[in-house]
Amino acid sequence: MGYDTTVTRIASSLTTWHVGLIVIVTAAAYTPALRGGFIWDDDDHVTENQTLRTADGLRRIWFEIGAVAQYYPLVHTTFWVEYQLWGESPLGYHAVNIALHALNAVLVWLVLRRLRLPGAWLAALIFALHPVQVESVAWITERKNVLSGAFYLLALLAYLRFSPLDVELRPTWRWRSYTLTFVLFLGGLLSKTVTASLPAAILLLIWWKRGRIRPRNVVPLIPLFVVGIGLGLLTVWMEKYDLSGTGRGASGAMWDLTFVERGLTAGRAVWFYAAKLIWPARQAFIYPRWEIDASIWWQYLYPLMAGGLLVALAWWRDKIGRGPLVALLFFGGTLMPALGFLNVYFMQFSFVADHFQYLACLGPIALLAALLTVCVARASGLPMRRRRTRAPPRRPARLPPRH
C-alpha cells in the first residue's frame, strides 16, 4: 500500500467521523421535537392546506399564485409528498426538519473547510446546536428555513467548484458547476427567498480572499442577482397584498413606518440578534414588540453603534484582516429582509424572531469558531494546519525537435 493511498484512507475516515458525529449529535439534541405537534401557522401549511389533498393541488402549488400563503412551491411539494405518506401525523414532518438541519450542519462544515477557515468543524457544531436554531427546526412551518438552507449551501459549494476563491490567477471555470449552482440557487429561492442574498455573499467572500472584486467576478453572478431580485419582489408583493386570502396582508397602520423609524428598528434588531447569539437566554416564540419613537434620542444609539462598529472594522482591516468585517457584513446583509425595511406580516406581533437569523448567524458563528481555534492553537504552541492549495497546472516546456 502506497503512502498516498494510506493518507487518502485516513483522510476519508476522519471525514466520515466528522460527518457522523455532527449528524448523531444534531439528531440527539433535537429528539424532543419529535414529540411535538402542530402549532401556529402549521394549519395553513399542513393540516388545513387543501392543496395537499389531491394531485391537482400539486399543480396549483406550482402554477397558481395565491393557492398557498407564500409562493414557496418546493416547501409545499415536500409537504404534499409527506401528506401522502403519513397524513396529519406530525412525527414525520418533524423528522424531516431535523434531517435537513443535520444536513445543513454538515454542509456548513464542508463550505468552511473549502474556504480554509480555522475551526470549520466547531462552527458547524455550534450552528447545529445553538439554541436560536430550535425555532427553525422544531417548527414544522419553518421547513422554509431548513430546506432553503440546504439549497443555499449546496449552491455555494457548487460555485466554489466553478470558481475557486483561493486561486489568484484566472480560474478555469467549470460550466457544469455553474449550471448546478444556478439550479440549486433557484431551488433555494423556491423554498424561501431570503436565499437571494447568496450572490452578494459570494462577492463578500471574493473580497475577503482576494482583497478586491473585478468585473469578471461579477459577471457570472448577474443571472443570480436577476432571478433573486425577481422572486424576492414576488414575495414582497404576496406578503403585502395577501393573495391567498388568509387575511395576513402586511399593509395598514401597523406597517406605516417612516424610513427613519425603519432604520431605528433595523439598528435595534441587529443588536438583538447578536445578543441572542452570544447569550441565548429568555428565548420566546414571540418577543415583545418594541415601541419605535423617532423623538427618543437613545433609540438612535443602536444604528449608530452598528455603523460605528463596521467603520472601525473597515479602518482596522489591514491590522486584523478582512474576516471580522466580512462576517458582520454577511450577518447584516442576510438579515436585511427581516430588519424592518420590508413589510412582513409577522412584524405586527414582534420585530424579531429567532428563525429570522437561521442563515445569517453563520457569519458571527464562523468568526467566533475561527478566533477560538486560533487562540487555542497559539496558547498551546501548536502550529495552525493550513490546507494546501493546488497550483494551476503548467504546460510542459516545448522541447526543440530532434534532428
Walk me through this protein's architecture.
- This protein is mainly α.
- The chain contains 17 helices and no strands.
- The protein has helices spanning 3-29, 42-47, 55-63, 73-86, 90-114, 120-129, 134-138, 143-162, 175-189, 198-210, 215-218, 222-241, 259-278, 301-315, 317-320, 323-335, 362-380.
- Helix 10 (198-210) runs antiparallel to helix 16 (323-335).
- Mean pLDDT is 86; it is low at 1-11 and 387-403.
Order of helices and strands: HHHHHHHHHHHHHHHHH
Arithmetic mean pLDDT: 86
Mass-distribution shape: globular
Q: In percent, how helical is the residue content? A: 55-70%
Strand content: under 5%
Poorly predicted runs of 5 or more residues: 1-11, 387-403
Count of helix runs: 17
What does the main sheet amount to? Answer: none
Structural class: mainly alpha
- Kindly give the count of domains: 1
The strand count comes to 0
Q: Tell me the span between the first and last alpha carbons.
A: 43 Å
Radius of gyration: 23 Å
